[in-house]
Amino acid sequence: MAARRAATGGCTASSTSTTATSSTARAWSAASCPSAASSTGKTARTVYCSMAATFIIVLRHSILRDAYIGHGPRKLFSSNKISERARHELLLRSDDQERTLGSGQALVDTLFPYSPKDEANMDDMLTWMTADANSDYIDHRRDTSCPMLDRMAKEINNSPAVVAHRNSPAVLALQARFNAIVGVKFQWDTCLECLMIARCNNLPLPDGTTEELFHALINEVQTRTRMKLSYQNGAYAKLDMQHMWRDILKRVDAVILDPSSALKLSITMGHDSTLMPMMAVAMGPTWDGHWTTYAGMLVIEVYRDADMDRRHGDAYAVRLIYNGKPLQLPFCNDELCPWSTFNASLSWARATRQCKLPTKASTRLDTNVSTHQPSAAWFLLPVGALLAVVGTLATRQSPYRRETDPLLG
């Protein structure tokens, strides 16, 4: 199927800078060069920011357009004309479900508005990367390529902490209360989806479902999910999204190696089951476990110190933004995280994904690493952005060239 553009997942954005003071005296100034993707307004020092690339995991459209397209040192693209960008600068990725494909089309149409002229030049077409549902890590619910995930899920479900919570008087009472309302034994795995679809589309809830009960049910689903994704230092969440994190690290590697040929913007259209484990990994013990919103967006911005050799890893820093709010990663001293620290903390993602069933019971993935924060003052030039998107269904139809590649993230 021919078309001018495509949707991709996992993007790292590099259009804003954040400031943090490290224990070794390097001053990070993140909010002093705010981008449209960030909602912060604090300032710490004047720094020069210039955008070179962005990787983003996203659900919201206009935020990205305002942050990364236009004139200025913090923009990724000076024009929203698809014909004016180099073919290697943009990666679009999603799974093969129609709703994520439709959401991706809506997102790209917002960033690069469609023009009939785009169809006249085959070079202006974008390639939309998808993968076989049975091996696509974007949505593990259909991925049968990693049997270890099922093994770990069963282990977590039978762990003493989870069993104790599941059988606690408060949870059993809540379950019995809603069972009486719906008249059947409901499933916790689908409870939130049913409730939220009804609420967000102004559909009636089952008779007797009070506001207090509604929130109690949602909180219980979030608690169970948080326990699963946080179990044993986030072992399940790490294995689930290991491929995604490895792709992100490799894309930053490419920016450092040769920014002129590297991606500027990488977009991954995913689901709540994509963003939730990524948030669990990134935030670790500080993650609140709240369910991701519709059109939720995780952006990973990459910056470069203008005064340092661009080939040096210490010249780079990253910042994560979730739904417009910069995140304070637990292994970094501030919102703007040195690339060396970020890379070391996620180094486990570069290893081979352990999907084969082990001979011993332990499935823990320990990633305890020392995180050294470099020193000195920074003048930051954004160099990349990764974008991951949990999409909502788009109804507009537009032509796209679709390709499948099980190896491309």
TrEMBL record:
Gene3D superfamilies: Phosphoglycerate mutase-like
Domain of life: Eukaryota
Signal peptide range: none
InterPro entries given in the database record: His_PPase_superfam (IPR029033), Histidine_acid_phosphatase (IPR050645)
GO molecular function terms noted in the UniProt entry: phosphatase activity
Hydrolase as UniProt keyword: yes
Keywords annotated in UniProt: Hydrolase
Protein name: Histidine acid phosphatase
Organism whose genome encodes this protein: Saprolegnia diclina (strain VS20)
